[in-house]
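Anyone able to model this chain together with zinc ion?
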Amino acid sequence: MQDSKFISRRSFVKFTGAAALGASIIKYGDDLMTVGEARADETPRPQTPDEALKKLMAGNERFVNSLKKSPRRTVEVREQVALGQTPFAAILACADSRVAPEIIFDQGLGDLFVVRVAGNIVNTANYGIVGSLEYGALALGAQVIMVLGHSRCGAVSSAIEAVEKGTEFPGAIDDIVYSIGPAVAAAKDEPGDLLDNATVANVNIGVDTLNGSVRVLADRVREGKLKIVGAVYDLFTGEVKIVA
Ligand SMILES: [Zn+2]
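re: yes, here you go
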């Protein structure tokens, strides 16, 4: 049955009644979509880094405009990706509960290889962060690595507090805050809002570090197989803006 290719068998069976009445409408996430719309959303895997970035940003545009399709979340896709994953993008995002990449980029199962850590820091001394991003790009073939900061980030504002007031934080939180210090220093003389500027500076430092200090990634960028970009997510508007 052709229409069941991208729609779960269960959903199809459930809505067979509606289809039989001539309304080929399915329940997909919170929305009702026609079968044609649901299928059109299952775009093929991008072939180049530019296509991968475009797919990512198109998903964010859907999210911003409340047109999200919640693609690739069917039983069939789940079973398909269980056999192997080929995510087209790797995202290093903040651990913040409001910045979930699959939601804000409107992507599905197996699409994004996500690494999350408070302050989206790129710390080359932390093999977990850099090694995971390397794995996403080299082993799984992600064509874009995005370092994603966000507005009103608690980790960045704590780093500002540490620099300005000498505040110390308990445990390993202090290590995270300390590692964002260079971004605060880079932004402190810029005009405008220090938190916004330090957030962008922190993303820039992350991108520069991955491009410059992580040789296996830099090689892949040179070969045109990978793009490393930086972006900032706005908690209010839902918009992701490329900054690096
Ligand atoms: Zn944050």
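The first strand starts at residue 25 and ends at 28.
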